[in-house]
Amino acid sequence: MLQNYLFDFDGTLADSGTTTVDAIQVVLADYKFTQPSADEIRYYMGIPIETSFPIWTDHQADDKTLAAMYADFRQIYGELERVNIKLFAGIKDVLATLKADNKELFVVTSKASGAIKRSLKQLAIEQYFTGTIGSDQVDHYKPAPDGVLNIARQYQLNLDQCIMIGDAKYDLQMGNVAGVATCGCKWGAYDVASLEKEKPTYLIDYPQELLTLR
């Protein structure tokens, strides 16, 4: 029986529209790097900027430049997110129902820990979550299993009762390596076929289906 629900954030709980794409393109343009297309950016969404930005810069940016780009991205993203971000339809009701059923809810995200706490508060869903873990709280980023395993260790969770829920293949890969059940979410996915290739335990179309998982 599932007891612990570990959610990705962007594309799973929340729809931030073109926020990520816009912020990445602005920063790369500011630093005179070629702008990738929106589709190219979406392909890598789900992993931290510390992994994707070296790719966008073709590994030509030094550590000092990358650090400045990360800071600029987070500032621009935060400004855009305050305007653009919204919950996917039905998510809040699903979270409330799971919580009322005494399930433990967590967020495992590639966002920094401060950013995810800010986002949950802005969307008025922070009260549903027992804990969160951001990219600055793991030694290895998605798709490594650190996020799941750190949450499990911190809260003494039984892995057999955990499920990792996300819209990107990196979420499913992380869950698979960690040894927990996985659920691919089509409603926010850029590439559903990539989710199918990971052979998740569940692959669902709508948030309400989360209430049927066992």
UniProtKB/TrEMBL annotation:
Coiled-coil stretches: none
Record's keyword terms, sorted: Hydrolase
GO molecular function terms listed in the Swiss-Prot or TrEMBL record: phosphoglycolate phosphatase activity
One Pfam family of this chain: HAD_2
Any one of the GO CC terms: cytosol
GO terms of biological process kind: DNA repair
Protein name in the entry: HAD-IA family hydrolase
Source species of the chain: Ligilactobacillus saerimneri
